Amino acid sequence: MVSYKELGLVNSRELFKKAMEGGYAIPAFNFNNMEQLQAIISACVETKSPVILQVSSGARKYANQTLLRYMAQGAVEFAKELGYPIPIVLHLDHGDSFELCKSCIEFGFSSVMIDGSHLPYDENVALTKKVVDYAHQFDVTVEGELGVLAGIEDDVKAEHHTYTDPAQVVDFVSRTGVDSLAISIGTSHGAYKFKPEQCTIDENGRLVPPPLRFDILKEVEKRIPGFPIVLHGASSVPQEYVDEINRYGGKLKDSIGVPEEQLREAAKSAVCKINIDSDGRLAMTAAVRRVLWTQPAEFDPRKYLGPARDELKKLYMHKTQNVLGSAGKA
Ligand code: 13P
User: pTM (2 decimals)?
Assistant: First the structure.
């Protein structure tokens, strides 16, 4: 058993408390390789933002759990070396079983999500409570989920949304003891969050998706005031990246994300954690495609992964400064 405290990591409790009071959200960025981690840490150090490093079970399989844990430990030292030791949480994204959560806790994670949202309500309560009871012995924080997001995130898939039912939140939170709650208000995983036929067209010819269900968020806040809420599926799918990917041989069609103004609005409410994965994938792919397309003789991975890392850092700095409001809060 390795305690996250020995690794210099923190759990999410204090960060969420401050985010709630300050009207901003903590970024939760997914990573599974070195360049992503370097970009996340250097962007958050430079903007003085706390950060949640997110590992999905897919990432765990891809990169190896031991390596990921040492990378997170390395990230703590890297931040210090860059001159500003920001608070770093190592979080399991979409844990699907008690065993997986337990194993992550034993490996040094400071926070886990148990995603029982696809289960019948009582089974979701029982599974979430089991994880909470285990995690809290080690002061590890737990995120639960009510309502189902559409879209694809590694192994997590759903065709349609099931919006969170605000009538269930008090019971869920009090029976499970979770530390934060992910809700479904119209965001979804992946780069195809809305269909063009759901959107209107603005004066620049851009597709504007339907607004998130802020009415559900408000109702949830009313029932569990001051309780940290999590927004998954919060990538904005910047059109510049989609255009660049397609310019250099890609084939992305109808990729539409959540407008940043809506995320800004959410961050001012009880939403304390905003999950962003797809935007990083797009930024990286755009940069790699640009180099490989314009310099076809290049074969040094540093020559395309370096620009990908630079693009990622720019994206993450933009998120902390202009979208989530977490810059300057570390
Ligand atoms: P995006 O696909 O919108 O980046 O969402 C990521 C996410 O919610 C990870 O859990």
Answer: 0.96
